[in-house]
Prior knowledge:
By secondary structure, the chain is mainly α. It is 64% helix and 5% strand. The protein has 19 helices and four strands. Strands 1-4 form a two-stranded antiparallel ribbon. A two-stranded antiparallel sheet has the order 2-3. Helix 12 packs parallel to helix 15 (376-393) and helix 18 (418-432) crosses helix 19 (437-460).
Amino acid sequence: xxxxxxxxxxxxxxxxxGEHLEELRICLFRSLFGMIIxxxxxxxxxxxxxxxxxxxxxxxxxKHYLNRALKEVTADxxxxxxxxxxxxxxxxxxxxxxxxxxxxxxxxxISGAYPGLTGxxxxxxxxxxxxxxxxxxxxxxxxSKVIQDLAFVKLLADQEQAKTPSPARRIWQSLSExxxxxxxxxxxxxxxxxxxxxxxxxxxxxxxxxxxxxxEAPEFAKLTGVDAKATEAxxxxxxxxxxxxxxxxxxxxxxxxxxxxxFRKPQVNLVTFYNWRPVKVRYQVLxxxxxxxxYLKASLVSGIVLASPWIFYQIWxxxxxGLYPHEKNQVFLYLPISMLLFFAGxxxxxxxxxxxxLDFLFQFNEGLNAEFDPRIGEWLSFxxxxxxxxxxxxxxxxxxLFINRLGLVSxxxxxxxxxxAILIIFLVAMVLTPADPVSMLLMAIPLCGLYVLGIAMxxxxxxxxxxxxxxxxxxx
Length: 476
């Protein structure tokens, strides 16, 4: 008959239950002592450790900022930016930021600080510029835009045959014969004005509107402009003192009000240019003590990592204390394998996983036009959890070997249930990784390979007899 199992499994073993507890206490104390020493060392290197953990995010963010800047410049140049812009952005790590500046104020500031430097250069704050013309949808194609400069040219050219006084006719009569001929040629060509032609037309318009006689004419005297109160205030100011800039402001308001279909409401004249700045990643904190807590967290984590070989060794020493002499040799075989798998998983996460995961997540930020301001506390938690999850999950071969040696699962069952194993691997990877498919796949695929490695270890690793199996074997 088969022998009945003993009530005390420690009976006849190498150690009693009390001795096991004492050995556990000693191993825990040694592990804690080693971790404290590691944390003390980590306090002196916490800043370097934080910088080390920040490097993957800095690389990914730098790439993200440069790609976004290149897309914006490509859009500004309508798909074909100069090659020098691409080189400056990608190789020089410089980001162009569009800035709007009022030229009149710039010239005035430079002239005040450095008299004579700007010479006779002038930029009237209220001159007509290309941006003053309205841009409307094309009647033929709703996706295309049409600038209303040609429409205003045709309106003025039609005034040659007009008999009724109007603001448009008054402007036409204020032009020279040569200017009138040029307007008729543009209107007859019936083509959008080229950049040079538009500049020439605006020069004509600004020349005419620089004279106060125009707004004193009967056709303009009764116009209220865009804002009646503002127009009246400008008229009173000109009545007291003649000023060219005030005259231009008044004309701009009057013409925008009279020809609202061609001109937008008066705005400040601005010039857009690029301001190049070096790309720089900045991290955000929400309170004053967060940076200090991050420093302590980094020292704690670094201490655990530094002390991990010693902690693993103490764990296996505790396990070996309850084994028979011929089984203890296997501890020195499994311990380095366990540590190697842990560091392999953590290194894989830090070296090969962070970059594609961050690139994948930043693509959604670009799609939503969202600005990402990384918080160092959240990033540090992310960068620590992911390698830890990889290191723990990479213990899969040893777990398979352990339950096989206990007789719970046979090698044949491992091989038969490989489909179920893959499903479980993907579920575990989903739990141990952030909420994105890239990190889940990058964990699950190596684990599938480790599952095959676990089967191989169950077959080829040395197998010793369990001390408890004799209690269940039938007697001779």
